[in-house]
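Let us work through a complete example step by step.
Step 1: write down the sequence.
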Amino acid sequence: MHQIGALFLTAAAGASGLFGLFGAHAAARAELHASSTVAVSADISCIATAVAARESSLDSAMTTETAAINSAYSARASALASAYAEPSAATIRASVKSAWATFTASIQLAHKNWKSAQQTAWMQFRTAAKACGPSAASVSDASNASLDVSAGGATN
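Step 2: predict the structure and record it as tokens.
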């Protein structure tokens, strides 16, 4: 029984040496892992900052767009109320047409401004993410940009 135990320990030591679990090779691997872990942690921190800045910009831009759309609806409601207070059908038609044209232009401008802000936020994010280092790409959410595009505008 004692011989089997000694034989097992010898085999285990030989196998562990073969796989680099002990000795100089293991120490070098541990040092490499520790240094790459530090670099990856720094890259992750950097990409987290870039994502936070992008999301803050997008949030601000969406708040601005929403306010502009709300304003456009309020202005349209007031303009239509005034239009229907006009004395003649011709004046009403002209005022209604003007109210809708102004509303359409306001909505288009709000959407154009949103798309521009969205593109800028993503462009700044891509620039910041590149500066974070090569391992940052493995944890970046940039591949989801198309989801944001479908929610409100292009990122080109």
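Step 3: interpret the result. The chain has a mean pLDDT of 79.
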